[in-house]
Amino acid sequence: MNNDAKGTRGDAGTSGSHSSPGLYVHVPFCATRCDFCAFYEERPTAESVRRYLAGMEREAALLGGPLAVETVFWGGGTPGVLAAADLRRLGEITLSCCAAAPREWSVELAPGSVTGARLAVLRELGVTRISMGAQSFQPALLEALGRRHSPAQIHRAYERIRAAGFARVNLDLMFALPGQEEDAWLADLRAAVAMRPEHISTYCLTFEEDTALWVKLSQGRVKLDREREAALYERTWGELAGGGFAQYEISNFARPGHECIHNLNTWRMGSWIGLGPSAASQHAGWRGANPSDLDAWLAGLARGERAATERVALTEALLAEDALIFGLRMNAGVDLAALRGRHPGADWAAADAFAARLEGEGLAEREGDTLRLTLKGRLVADAIGVEALGVLSGMQ
Q: Residue limits of the Radical SAM core domain (predicted)?
């Protein structure tokens, strides 16, 4: 499992909605559960994979025919736990949803799941981008996270991906891990840069309820250290900038022209369609999610239902609020005038007051109509996002 994209709320607020939707496919299988992971997943068996693929065919049929899909993202879980033949079948189901070849097709892989047979199938299907969850190059830290790969496996997997002809690769890394010193984190960053991927995602460790890591926190076996997190954020940004990676979102860095298009569409409040258990959708005026349970998902499909969980109408206030929250996570910031033009019915007086407060506290700056976070603001972007909830709907 990695965190490159999961089909959630978001908008950069600067370029408007994409006319073509993205397609997110959730593969809910993992061989083992990492200590930090709170995503829905389960152990694969021959029967559960068979039922999953049959369900995917049924859900794809419910879309009513091929759509003008611009991007595809397979996440999980770990798509790479599927056998090559099952990957091919899933790919054929995915392509049946697309009126033409997608512009970008990303697939998440764990280092231990990268094989020549799987990569050959992905290349034949038209996958353009591999996102690999390395997390760390330190054996002790990988063990502490519950990861089942070694640093040597990361390098071997990367070499296989390149040998298979993939021109776009993302590496996921995690920092602020229990027992991780700053020198170890800088060594991880430098090791990743030295491999010369096109994209690097860096995620600060979070403590999600119902995870093994949350239990350790509640027992006092690990502790939060916000000052240390902030220091590591700043070192990360400087280190990757020096390595030729431009930050375009709080956790995401790319060489020029290699930003993840699927994620950009999500953050910019484009539409996306989610297939598979727990996958979210935002399309045709509504937002919803599939049940995070294989049996419940299949039962819903048998009734002709999809994305029926937490289903809400996309109001102007909701869309504008998401644009503000996730747009501020983008280095480009939020074009408030353009956002107001798209969603005039939101509470813009409250939004202007919120923006003014961020400026007054040195957390944001304005350049014309564009509001973007300062370095000080980016260090507390999550807290700012929580404060922004309800601003444009007048519910604060």
A: 15-240
| CATH 3.30.750.24 assigned to 22-267 | no
Contact 95, 136 (CB under 8 A): no
Give me the amino acid identity at 335. Answer: D
Structure tokens that stand for 37 in this block: 């992971």
To which H or E segment does residue 324 belong? Answer: helix 316-327
DSSP 3-state assignment of 57? helix
Q: Which two tokens stand for residue 108?
A: 């998440």
Task: For the chain, state the CA radius of gyration.
Answer: 21
Name the pTM for this structure. 0.88
The token pair at 83 is 């056998």
The residues of the chain that CATH labels 1.10.10.920 are 316-388
- The count of other CB atoms within 10 Å of the CB of residue 79 is 25
CA nearest to 200, candidates 260, 289, 156: 260
In angstroms, the CA 148 to CA 140 distance is 11
CB-based contacts of 377, cutoff 8 Å, min separation 6: 328, 358, 362, 363, 364, 384
Question: Cα–Cα distances in Å, from 310 out to 6, 74, 395?
Answer: 16, 22, 19
- Bridge partners, 109 (sequence order): 132
Torsion angle defined by CA atoms of residues 366, 372, 374 and 380, in that order, rounded to the nearest 10 degrees: 140
Report the distance separating Cα 25 and Cα 63, nearest Å: 14
Torsion (CA) 314, 68, 59, 310 in degrees, nearest 10: -10
Core vs surface per residue 92-112: b (16+ CB within 10 A) or e: ebbbebbeeebebbbbbbbbb
CATH topology of domain 316-388: Arc Repressor Mutant, subunit A (1.10.10)
Digit-coded pLDDT (tens) for 125-176: 999 999 999 999 999 888 877 777 899 999 999 999 999 999 999 999 999 8
Q: Which residues of the chain form CATH 3.20.20.70?
A: 22-267
Ramachandran angles phi, psi of 116, nearest 5° = -60, -40
For residue 380, the SS3 value is: coil
What would the mean pLDDT of 18-29 be, rounded to a whole number? 89
Q: Decide: 355 and 370 in contact? Cβ < 8 Å.
A: no
Confidence of residue 394 (pLDDT cuts 50, 70, 90): low
